[in-house]
UniProtKB/TrEMBL annotation:
Molecular functions per Gene Ontology: L-lactate dehydrogenase (NAD+) activity
UniProt domain Lactate/malate dehydrogenase C-terminal: residue ranges: 134-298
Record's protein name: L-lactate dehydrogenase
Stored CDD domains: LDH_1
Record organism: Papio anubis (Olive baboon)
Associated pathway: Fermentation; pyruvate fermentation to lactate; (S)-lactate from pyruvate: step 1/1
Family stated for the protein in its record: Belongs to the LDH/MDH superfamily. LDH family.
Record domain Lactate/malate dehydrogenase N-terminal: where: 23-128
UniProt-listed GO biological process terms: lactate metabolic process
Length: 303
């Protein structure tokens, strides 16, 4: 007896056994994972979204909730499971699992705790890249643009190094419409500047702490930042992002440390590094950032 579907729909070609898809997975569906997933759905970057978390009941609820809004989305399929096998065939897996930063707590205090989490998750994934200072740079864009009265996309500013307190604002590269702000104000970003632009970088460094103090966690800006990276990969846009990569050999650094440099990201992943010119004081700050992370990294257990 024919089913309702068979009565309703008459196929004219056989269904393919496998269909090329644009599947994206979010591992650990907490506040950050949820933000990443919603931003991906909003940008229609995936035709299948998979969610992974150990909290099975909550995970099912987070799956059903956006499914009920699928009329308004371009994503055909949303699935969820506590087993990482659900990530199979994913083009991108976004890992947001980790220990939440508390008010007043610095990122470096979480390193060992997060290593203990990642060592159970990352081996099940492949081609892992780090979002690095992509969000820090977005914050820098936001604040500089706000001060100049323009849209963030109309100014070019970068944060390199550690995604934490020792990151480096590359003032030599700050420009608007091709005009170097350092040419207009050679002292920009220094203690000697007549206008205190250095305060902008200080606010960038403290941004996460401020948000955590106000609402207890950061999530939406992270989701938007990660989605920007996903967009570069899924749409094969060779865009430049400040991302975590091996810095040994750069700027005279000898230790095997992963920090943010300007990188080209496309469908093949992180493919190239931009040879960013830095001033002597910026090189010194970058090395300090490297030393800060190395002092933590060299003592980590089970790395």
């Amino acid at each position: 007896m024919a089913t309702l579907k068979e009565k309703l729909i008459a196929p004219v070609v056989e269904e393919e056994a496998t269909v090329q898809n644009n599947k994206i997975t979010a591992v650990s569906f907490g506040l950050v994972g949820m933000s990443c997933a919603i931003c991906v759905l909003g940008k229609s970057l995936a035709d299948e979204l998979a969610l992974v978390d150990v909290l099975e009941g909550k995970l099912k609820g987070e799956m059903i909730n956006p499914q009920h809004g699928s009329l308004f989305l371009q994503t055909l399929k949303i699935v969820a499971d506590k087993d990482c096998s659900v990530t199979a065939s994913s083009k991108i897996v976004v890992v947001t699992a980790g220990v939440r930063q508390q008010e007043g707590e610095r990122h470096l205090n979480l390193v060992q705790k997060n290593v203990n989490v990642f060592k159970f998750i990352i081996p099940q994934m492949v081609n892992v890249i780090g979002s690095g200072c992509n969000l820090d740079s977005a914050r820098f864009h936001c604040l500089m643009a706000e001060n100049l009265g323009i849209h963030p996309s109309s100014c070019h500013v970068w944060i390199l190094g550690e995604h934490s307190d020792s990151n480096v604002a590359v003032w030599i590269g700050v420009n608007v419409a091709g005009f170097s702000l350092q040419e207009l104000n050679p002292e920009i970003g220094t203690d000697n500047a007549s206008e205190n632009w250095k305060e902008v970088h200080k606010i960038v460094v403290e941004s996460a702490h401020e948000v955590i103090k106000l609402k207890g966690y950061t999530n939406w800006a992270i989701g938007l930042s990660v989605t920007g990276l996903i967009e570069s990969v899924m749409n094969n846009l060779p865009r430049i992002h400040p991302m975590s990569t091996m810095v040994k050999g750069m700027y005279g650094i000898e230790n095997e440390v992963f920090l943010s440099l300007l990188c080209i990201l496309n469908a093949r992943g992180l493919t190239s590094i931009i040879n960013q010119k830095l001033k002597d004081n910026e090189v010194a700050q970058f090395k300090k950032s490297t030393d800060t992370l190395w002092d933590i990294q060299k003592d980590l257990k089970d790395l």
